[in-house]
Amino acid sequence: MSVAKDTAILLLVSDPIVRAIMKETLENVGYTVFPAGDLGKAVDRLKERTPDLLLISLYVEDISGRDAATYLRTKVPGLRVLMTSGLIDDDRLQNQMTLKSFEVFPKPFPPAEFLAKVKEVLQKNPQANLS
After folding, report:
1. Is residue 40 part of a domain?
2. What is the pTM assigned to this prediction?
3. Digit-coded pLDDT (tens) for 98-110
């Protein structure tokens, strides 16, 4: 899998083990990853670099992933967002029209499928899913 040179991903996942696994998977194919466990740390990471993609859990410590992603888009307009969730079959997720402006990818996922989805989202026009 070829990665565009110097592609940066802001990884906002509360669980440190899941965050570490996702970070390693992404870095192994050449992405630059800026991990964060909460929204405050994610905002701090934006001071270091403007990411090409926000990879975020549906639920982040003390805030929904949707609200966190919406807030981060106020800081980086047009930010591509890929949200992950283990609740993809849950009615709460399926019926949330508020997620329509975000890509949602169900967990668990094999690394190859995960990396393919990341690449797919990165290739989209960043303005395509804004609402």
Report:
1. yes
2. 0.82
3. 555 666 665 667 7
